[in-house]
Structure prediction request, 97 residues.
Amino acid sequence: MKVRRIVITGAAGNIGSKLSYAFKDKFDLILLDKKENKDKNIGYADFSKYDINWADHFSNVSTVIHLAVSGRNQLNPDVTTVIGKAIASYPGKAPLP
Prediction:
């Protein structure tokens, strides 16, 4: 059976880290966060501007859980737009299992 590939933004945060832990044995996870952290499973991504270095992580993904916030724990609509651009740049979306 094919395992669903999920990107979690804000993976080093409170909710992101708990969700990552709960999903770790069930899904193929791509974890991204702007914070520098000791967890080698979490990749660095500054979502304030589009960058191909992190945008490639959205290739062949079936689900994106966007938990990244900016500043005072507020969702930033510009960040959501940039992540949407990364997702849209890969026309061949992964099929759902």
Summary: The mean pLDDT is 81. Residues 5-88 form a domain with the Rossmann fold fold (CATH 3.40.50.720).
